[in-house]
Amino acid sequence: MEDCLLKPKRQNVFPPQLQSISATIICILNPTSSINSQPTLRLNDCYGSTGTANASYNSSLTALFESLSSKASQNNSFYNDSSNIGIYSLYLCRGDVSNESCKSCVSSATQEIINRCPSSTEAIIWYDECTLRYADVNFFGKPDTRPWLIMNNVDSYNSSLTALFESLSSKASQNNSFYNDSSNIGIYSLYLCRGDVSNESCKSCVSSATQEIINRCPSSTEAIIWYDECTLRYADVNFFGKPDTRPWLIMNNVDNTTSPGQPNFYARGLLDQLIGRVNEKDRLFETDEQIVKIGDD
Q1: Which sequence spans correspond to the domains of the chain?
Q2: Which of 29, 95, 116, 246 has its CA 20 to 30 A from that of 105?
Q3: At CB < 8 A and 24+ separation, what contacts does 210-214 make?
Q4: Dist CA 98 CA 265 (whole Å)
């Protein structure tokens, strides 16, 4: 069973209400847990070319990455900087990871992004613990409407979904709402906004994320969505402060993507709570909510 790796053209493929923000979405269905001390690379994308002989650009990029790594070692979860020849870069670590994990992730990202995107004028790399991006144009505080790298494995998705429904026993309702054998289920969630975006942009991003993650991951017990400006994640297990090396299923963000199952109502209440907190200008919020199961026994 092979993963299908897709690199979409640089065009806007989102519906009108989401065209101000781009997203990469990951849905997890019935995963197997695994813990690893090394930062977990998810995906990357590269744009443009400086030419192999552009030593000045490469030298400035290396110096800029050294500055970012230095800031990460000083326990900064977010930092942006620019070079004297117009290269802009930033990193963002998850607010719930340790300082050591942030430092390790940024260090790995600055090395790996050069290996994976040699001579590129713009690139971004996503780890479970952090994100690193650079460009030859100033993107600080600005949304980016381009779709990033997408990967999809339909067979794996359908297989995992079937296994998940079987484990939920025979108590599913006609609208495919989620059930649990116990009286309550624990759901954990967090969002994190980039440090250089406005409070209004943070609020707008999280609001869009809560809608899109339900639409794109309708039957998932766990999901994460990466926008250029924010990240949103929820799960039925406590993932706060923990690295995660499980395989993820990255959902296609093209409009005609078909996701199996009905909307995931069991996460709706928690995500509404997140919207309330982002209105209070929180840049990082995490919660473990007890949601009473829906339906009759």
Answers
A1: 11-36+146-292, 41-135
A2: 29
A3: 210/271, 210/272, 210/274, 210/275, 212/18, 212/23, 212/25, 213/25, 213/267, 213/271, 214/263, 214/264, 214/267, 214/268, 214/271
A4: 32
Choosing among 1.10.3720.10, 3.30.430.20, 3.40.630.30, 1.10.10.10, the CATH entry for 41-135 is 3.30.430.20
- Report CA-CA distances (Å) from 265 to 112, 185, 222, 268: 38, 13, 13, 5
267 Ramachandran zone, left/alpha/beta (phi>0; psi -120 to 50)? alpha
Query: Measuring CA to CA, which residue among 247, 39, 14, 29 is closest to residue 143?
Result: 14
In SS3 terms, the chain reads as: CCCEEECCCCCCCCCHHHCCCCEEEEEECCCCCCCCCCCCEEEEEEECCCCCCCHHHHHHHHHHHHHHHHHHHCCCCEEEEECCCCCEEEEEECCCCCHHHHHHHHHHHHHHHHHHCCCCCEEEEEECCEEEEEECCCCCCCCCCCCCCEEECHHHHHHHHHHHHHHCCCCCCCCCCCCCCCCEEEEEEEEEECCCCCHHHHHHHHHHHHHHHHHHCCCCCEEEEEECCEEEEEECCCCCCCCCCCCCEEECCCCCCCCCCCCCHHHHHHHHHHHHHHCCCCCEEEEEEEEECCCCC
The model carries a pTM of: 0.52
Exposed (0-12), middle (13-18) or buried (19+): which is 175, by Cβ within 10 Å? exposed
